[in-house]
Design goal:
Length: 292
Amino acid sequence: MTAAPWLVLGAGALGQLFAARLAAADDIGPIALRGRHGLLNQLRLQETDGSWRSLALASPEAPPALVIVATKAPDAEQALQQAQLAPGTPLLLLQNGFSVQPRLSAQWPGPVLCAATTEAAYRQPPPAIGVVHAAAGHTWLGDLAGQHRTMAAAVAATLTRAGLAASACDDIDEKLWHKLAVNAVINPLTARHRVLNGTLAEPPLSAEVAALCAEIAQLMAAAKVSPPAAGWQGWVSAVIEATAGNRSSMLQDVLAGRGTERDAILQPLLALADTHALAVPRLRACYHATPA
Ligand SMILES: NC(=O)C1=CN([C@@H]2O[C@H](COP(=O)(O)OP(=O)(O)OC[C@H]3O[C@@H](n4cnc5c(N)ncnc54)[C@H](OP(=O)(O)O)[C@@H]3O)[C@@H](O)[C@H]2O)C=CC1
Ligand SMILES: CC(C)(CO)C(=O)C(=O)O
């Protein structure tokens, strides 16, 4: 009997990477990839060693056993509606930020796993076709209510078998907030000043980084989210250093004239500030200076 397919929803950078890795692996059921205009039957992936490979994808008729949602955060709900899934279909959300995760966890009738991933991929600029696996990372998986640990472990094991190192965890909310802190500082500043991530390590923008980290630390303490081992500023600075040569995803979106993930990344922090009556002038200014 053929295993039930997995469907990757959103044929962008991360969706193509996940679909390619899963499709290339042995002993994993059929993998389908659905973009804005329907199912794709093949894709091209550049490996981290620079070599290219082409992969065939399935057009399965059976309903998916898992849907990996790989759109940008503002598109996730519409993509799910258009996919017309059976109620109760398990989801794995790959989005940055902390917006679609709590919403779908509350509203979706099936299990909702959330991922915090450090895999990095980008689409080749047109007219080239294909996705580049820029850096291998790690994917943490879990659900916000801690009710689907077994499913998270099974999905993590499958991803790992496919070459996407993954682990289930009991603190996915904390991991999502840690990632959000990085994106809330690096993405708006690099997009606004049109600079590579590494420029944030130098004056004058390093002072802006410190001020934003201080506001985030205050919010996270109020929300009882444990800080990363290096502290909020140490953690953000380490990511700036590790990704110094990167053009952040928000800068790429702005340069390409696309919508950004501003609301998914900054709104949850502004909502916490309102809940706890805390002043966050730097974060508010960042929000207003960033296109939606
Ligand atoms: N790329 C990366 O390295 C990482 C990305 N992330 C997060 O993962 C998520 C995806 O990022 P990324 O892959 O880079 O984004 P991309 O913009 O490359 O991909 C998103 C894809 O979703 C498609 N899409 C939009 N609406 C629909 C729809 N209704 N139905 C089907 N497909 C749709 C888009 O189509 P179209 O092209 O037509 O707009 C696009 O191809 C984001 O939240 C990002 O923050 C997290 C970690 C790393
Ligand atoms: C970590 C960082 C900031 C790397 O560029 C990223 O996640 C992004 O660009 O969205």
